Automatic annotation (TrEMBL):
NCBIfam families linked to this entry: PRK08139.1 (NF006008)
Domain of life assignment: Eukaryota
Gene from which this protein is expressed: Echdc3
Protein name: Enoyl-CoA hydratase domain-containing protein 3, mitochondrial
Classification of source organism: Eukaryota, Metazoa, Chordata, Craniata, Vertebrata
Main location: mitochondrion
Primary role: May play a role in fatty acid biosynthesis and insulin sensitivity.
A Pfam family that the UniProt record links to this protein: ECH_1
Length: 244
């Protein structure tokens, strides 16, 4: 499924209405057998500029401000709770909550012209919620330099530090994203769902707990029909026939 941020005149800002739409699109028919991967992209030269600052002015009350940040956090955590991989296809600038969105996705493919920044500090609003995703994707000192200075990372710098998975020329962005998507679609949906959920659970644990969890999950994986089908297909030197 393709989800396209489509408000280029407002730099695809994550307004309350945009966040609600994004949540709805992410959850739409999520249990469908046909849904295998979600790709988030954007129209225009800016992937996403972050929150709509007009919604954060003093004219709106604290309740409205809380709503904006709460739904944003919900959307970012939802991405990692979904049973299918979510890919950010980035072609342009991703700043503040837009950078947070990229960091929250499972995989991110970026064009060479893309840039990533958390410039909130420059307007007196530190990017504390983007820092949650950023600090879990980047080395701490790289994340803090971005947060303290607001200076952008180039696409190559973002790749080097682990914010994105791949950087390609702009004219190859669609091809590379689809290549990854098609490869994902070759695997069992139930196995991928189990693996994704387990990955994020174990990342929050200490080493011993992570191995206890994943040891049990490997055993559970073998009880899945697709777990046994994959092993039998490998032994018989044939392609597996997945249940989904």
């Amino acid at each position: 499924r393709n989800i396209i941020l489509n408000n280029p005149r407002k730099r695809n800002a994550l307004s309350l209405s945009m966040l609600r739409s994004l949540r709805e699109d992410l959850l739409h028919d999520v249990k469908s057998k046909e849904l295998r991967v979600i790709i988030i992209s954007a129209e225009g030269p800016v992937f996403c500029s972050g929150h709509d600052l007009k919604e954060l002015s003093s004219e709106d009350d604290v309740k409205h401000h809380s709503q904006v940040f709460e739904i944003c956090a919900e959307v970012m955590t939802l991405i990692q709770k979904l049973p299918v991989p979510v890919i950010a296809k980035v072609n342009g600038l991703a700043t503040a909550a837009g950078c947070q969105l990229v960091a929250s996705c499972d995989i991110a493919v970026a064009s060479e012209k893309s840039q990533f920044a958390t410039p909130g500090v420059n307007i007196g609003l530190f990017c504390s919620t983007p820092a949650v995703a950023l600090g879990r994707s980047l080395p701490r000192k790289v994340a803090l330099e971005m947060l303290f200075t607001g200076e952008p990372l180039s696409a190559q710098e973002a790749l080097m530090h682990g914010l994105v998975s791949k950087v390609v020329p702009e004219d190859k962005l669609e091809e590379e994203t689809m290549k990854i998507s098609h490869k994902i679609c070759e695997s069992s949906k139930s196995v991928l769902a189990l693996g994704k959920a387990t990955f994020y659970r174990q990342m929050a644990q200490d080493l011993d707990s992570a191995y206890r969890l994943t040891t049990q999950v490997m055993v559970d994986n073998l009880t899945l029909r697709d777990g046994q089908e994959g092993i039998e297909a490998f032994i018989q030197k044939r392609k597996p026939i997945w249940s989904h």
